[in-house]
Write a structure and sequence with these properties.
The complex is a heterodimer of chains A (about 350) and B (about 270). With about 350 residues, chain A is an alpha/beta fold. Chain A has two domains: about 220 residues, P-loop containing nucleotide triphosphate hydrolases (Rossmann fold, 3-Layer(aba) Sandwich), CATH 3.40.50.300; about 70 residues, Alpha-Beta Plaits. Chain A has eleven helices and 15 strands. In chain A, helix 3 crosses helix 4. Chain B has one domain. Classes of the chains: A alpha/beta (about 350), B mainly alpha (about 270). At the A-B interface, strand 2, helix 2, strand 7 and helix 3 of A face helix 1 and helix 4 of B. The complex binds adenosine-5'-diphosphate and magnesium ion. Adenosine-5'-diphosphate (ADP) binds next to strand 3 and helix 1 of chain A.
Chain lengths: ~350, ~270
């Protein structure tokens, strides 16, 4: 595991931990969905849990929501133990799962009203809360229609609204924007930011570095049930490079040679794809950017285009572990420290 | 980094209590009823089937089977009433299955409610639906000339007996609902079980004319006892106590075997 940086306590005073996870293990047969995960979410902050498909993100969220019991380890949320105080814990949390869990045959309003009643709100309050949240999530017009008729984005928003009914102190969002179009994704991001501004603690899983960067203060990167890095998003960005330089050579055949040249000149993190015809280099600083351009220009490669973008999960993994996601086999000899 | 942990905000204890449970069951029952409203086709089996059976059997086979249609009406309708409890019991499993499949159950399970509430609300909603179909069936039958030869007490007793039997079948239905992959599969298996149970009973025809091997089945088929009991109660003919006893014994036995299995499986999944 790579410790990117010790997280400084930027408020100076003691900050409580809303979520404390220690050594959580969950195996399915021979699949180690969670293999000893530790993480902490400070109260009032957003922790991003970044990992590829199958990393164990959903399993983690399900353990923390009392939906499944871990094989080993402890997890305390809002001061309540997942195993010993599940009922109290459930009053503390809100969950928006990876797959929408709204009742398709009920209207948006009825979905929210039902949850209000199950959370012991008096009838009038449950009605008021449902109306208020529909308004807030721009669903007022669709309030009386059955959720079956909602678009993917509307369902997501209804799901988010449902998890907000009880004003949870800790909110879990499991890949809240996967499968959404960019506009809807931005709407969801805005909502999450609003909840955070109101003091909600959020644990958010995602496959996108961009999303983690947008929403999270700290980041825990997991792969195959193990934490492989954690720290402040800003520190991880400094390490991975906030952005990736994309170079499109005039002749795609030059790609391997370009990557080799960069490696020879100390830039080991360059990757390229023959399919897209792009060379990608995570940029960690101004000098590095200058150096890359200098090397490529100096060797006389014909360059058709240059662009920058936020790094992908693959590039993040490469920077942290020195190996890409796909062949992240647990072979220790290959897991060399990246050259920063 | 500090290790101070968020103090619990509310010191309330974890028990939910009777009034809480009643409120949760009430809210969930309302939900189940609204689902029926949003998907009226789901009323088909509970409401239309008995009516269709009545029409079909009374007018198509009635004359041939009992000599005349009026006699056959008095024979058939009580049996169909009994069987309604069985149909609604099967719907509990289908409903449970679709809640597990769609993730709605996950949502409920992250809420501070007792896990039995979800189940109790399914049973409550199906009971209400059953009462509606009893009313429709009796009303329809009376329109086409069926007569209750006894009184309202006997009608209530018939409905009560059907519900008691239905409640025992709920456990089997739950097990199917949790064991099978889709709501359609649950419905399919339920049909596969229900069809021979219904037709291999005294609901549609007296069993005396059936071949010996079939009679040995129809004699132990609890639906026969249920139909006989209903007929005795509504027509005021024949022994009441004996078939009622048999139905109650069956109900107790089925509950004793399947309730612990169903509850264990439900607890494991929730
Ligand atoms: N109920 C289950 N039964 C068997 N294997 C499971 C189950 N749930 C998850 N897994 C396995 O555990 C691993 C982690 O899954 P998951 O937590 O869903 O990952 P993620 O959400 O990060 O994509 C995967 O290999 C998945 O196949
Ligand atoms: Mg997942």
């Amino acid at each position: 595991m790579t410790r990117i940086a010790t997280a400084p306590n930027d408020r100076g005073a003691a900050v409580g931990n809303a979520v404390e996870v220690r050594g959580i293990v969950k195996h399915y047969g021979t699949t180690k969905a969670l293999d000893g995960v530790d993480l902490t979410v400070k109260e009032g902050t957003v922790l991003g849990v970044l990992g590829p498909n199958g990393a164990g993100k959903t399993t983690l969220v399900r353990v923390l929501s009392t939906l499944i019991k871990p094989d080993a380890g402890t997890a305390v949320v809002g001061g309540y133990d997942v195993l010993r105080q599940p009922k109290q814990l459930r009053r503390t949390i809100g969950l928006t799962g990876q797959y929408a869990s709204v009742d398709e045959l009920l209207s948006g309003y009825e979905n929210l009203y039902l949850i209000g009643r199950l959370l012991d709100l008096p009838r009038r309050e449950a009605r008021a809360r449902a109306t208020e949240l529909l308004e807030r999530f721009s669903l007022t017009e669709a309030a009386k229609r059955t959720a079956k008729t909602y678009s993917g984005g509307m369902r997501r928003r209804l799901d988010l609204a449902a998890s907000m009914i009880g004003r949870p102190r800790v909110l879990y969002l499991d890949e809240p924007t996967t499968g959404l179009d960019p506009r809807t994704r931005n709407e969801v991001w805005d909502e999450v930011q609003r909840m955070v501004a109101e003091g909600t603690t959020v644990l958010l899983t995602t496959q996108y570095m961009e999303e983690a960067e947008q929403l999270a203060n700290e980041l825990t990167v997991i792969d195959r049930g193990k934490v492989i890095a954690n720290g402040l998003v800003s520190d991880l960005k400094a390490k991975v490079g906030g952005q990736t330089l994309q170079v499109r050579p005039a002749r795609p055949a030059d790609l391997p040679e370009m990557a080799r040249c960069l490696r020879e000149n100390g830039v080991s993190t360059a990757t390229y794809s023959a399919d897209t015809g792009l060379l990608a280099v995570p940029i960690t600083g101004e000098e590095q950017l200058t150096a890359v351009i200098g090397v490529l220009g100096g060797r006389g490669f014909a360059i058709a285009g240059i662009d920058t973008k936020v790094p992908s999960l693959d590039e993040v993994f490469l920077a942290i572990t020195g190996k890409p996601v796909a062949d992240a086999e647990p072979v220790p000899s290959l897991a060399k420290e990246p050259v920063a | 980094m500090t290790t101070a942990t968020l103090a619990p905000a509310r010191a309330e204890d974890s028990r939910i209590g009777l009034s809480g449970t009643l409120r949760h069951v009430g809210a969930l029952t309302r939900r189940n009823l609204m689902r029926i409203k949003a998907d009226p086709e789901s009323m088909f089996d509970a409401v239309l089937m008995p009516v269709i059976f009545t029409v079909l059997f009374v007018y198509v086979f009635g004359g041939a089977m009992a000599g005349d249609q009026d006699t056959y009406k008095q024979y058939l309708v009580p049996g169909l009433l009994g069987q309604t409890g069985l149909t609604l019991a099967m719907a509990v499993g289908t409903g449970l299955n679709s809640d597990f499949q769609t993730g709605v159950m996950d949502r409920f399970r992250t809420l501070p409610i007792g896990r039995a509430s979800v189940l109790l609300s399914k049973i409550a909603a199906e009971t209400l639906r059953g009462l509606l179909s009893f009313a429709i069936l009796i009303g329809f039958a009376m329109c086409i000339g069926f007569e209750v030869k006894t009184g309202p007490l006997e009608v209530l007793a018939t409905i009560g007996l059907a519900l008691v039997f239905g409640m025992s079948i709920v456990w089997i239905s739950m097990l199917l609902g949790m064991a099978l992959r889709s709501a359609q599969a649950v419905q399919g298996v339920a049909m596969l079980v229900l069809m021979p149970m219904q037709f291999g009973s005294s609901i549609f025809a007296p069993t005396q004319t059936m071949p010996g091997w079939l009679q040995s089945f129809t004699k132990v088929n609890p639906l026969s006892a249920l139909a006989d009991a209903s007929r005795a109660l509504l027509n005021g003919q024949g022994a009441v106590a004996h078939p009622v006893m048999i139905v109650l014994i069956w109900s107790a036995a089925v509950t004793a075997v399947f309730a612990p299995l169903a509850v264990a499986r439900f607890r494991k999944r929730t």
